[in-house]
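Appendix C reproduces, verbatim, an entry submitted by the partner laboratory led by Prof. M.T., so that reviewers can inspect both the input and the predicted structure.
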Amino acid sequence: MGFIIYNISHAVQKGEGMPADQTITRRSISAAKQNQVQPSVYEFPIKGGVIKRKLVRPTPKISFKIARPLVEWALRAFIRLEIKDRENLPAEGAFIAVFNHLNLIDPPLHIISILPRDSIIMAKEELFFYWPMPLFRILMDIAEAYPVRRRGTPEERKQAIKYAKEVLAKGLVFGIYPEGTRSKLGCLKEAYTGCALIAVDTGVPLIPVSIRGTEKLKGMGWLSRPTVTITFGKPFTLPPIQGRPTEEKLRGLTEFIMSKLAGVLPPEYRGRYQPC
């Protein structure tokens, strides 16, 4: 393009006329750039502020390239990380990664386990507070994660779901914790229906990704270097439903999703869900 502009400019300076329909000016190029569609900026309210996100892939970011080895090194200093059946992870295409949740460090571990695929996760708003743990907020920003409030307004929930659909439309991995919070007992809690709604609306496959061992990381447990195991189940799709997705239908689909997640967890971690 620079070569074309130079030749046109050179011809004009020499007085060589050109047909109007072949004239390319810097002004027209600048106008074309201005008319390019800019990515939408999403605003997610949290207590005491707002998190703004444009949909960008995290892995090409310089901050991600710097933080990734540092975070992984720091985590491996406290745990023995074991990743099983990663071959079940699709190499390309959009899908929903369904996680169980035991500890605050689960999101970084899940993101690391999915690499080199880009994943963007929806996480609770507490991880985005600068106080009392600013490190988590920094890591969430680097990873392009976004917050959701468990007791948010219907508009806030719609915004969170809309963003998830955009993530999937871009062919990325969308990560979600259907339980909405950590399980203090270590077993699966009753899940919310948001994951099922996103899966129904997008039609993308899901993959259960279990984690166990991080529940031991409290108090002196940080000094014991427990084994943390992340296991990838086989991708699956939801059974078809007739008509609109009512709350009752979404509840049934959520049971199905959580049963798939229970299938990659030992019995003591399954709670009331049974593998299907």
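Residues 154-169 form the longest helix (16 residues). Additional entries are available on request from the coordinating office.
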